[in-house]
Design brief:
Elements (H helix, E strand, L loop, with lengths): L1 E4 L9 H5 L4 E4 L3 E4 L8 H10 L5 E4 L9 E2 L2 H4 L3
Antiparallel strand pairs: 1-4, 2-3, 4-5
């Protein structure tokens, strides 16, 4: 699974780091670091992290809760909050 974070959009809310700490981390108070090739076993946490981003800065290739592979952000999941 491949992750992309638009660091120009990212505002450092750190919701992703809270929900998927094995993939995302804050370096200091404003800089996000992440693993762009997240392990498959992090799929559920990543789906939550993508959906929780308030500025929709995270996209993931191959992330879908039904197991189907697709490209895009999990915007629909954010509506369920």
């Amino acid at each position: 699974m491949r992750l992309v974070v638009d660091l120009n959009k990212c505002q450092g809310y750190a919701q992703c780091a809270f929900l998927a700490p094995d993939v995302f981390a804050m370096h200091g108070e404003e800089s996000l670091i992440y693993n762009p090739h997240a392990p498959e076993e992090q799929r559920e946490r990543l789906a939550r992290a993508v959906a929780a981003c308030p500025v929709q800065a995270i996209t993931a290739d191959g992330l879908d809760s039904t197991g189907e592979r697709h490209t895009g952000s999990a915007q629909g999941a954010s509506d369920a909050r």
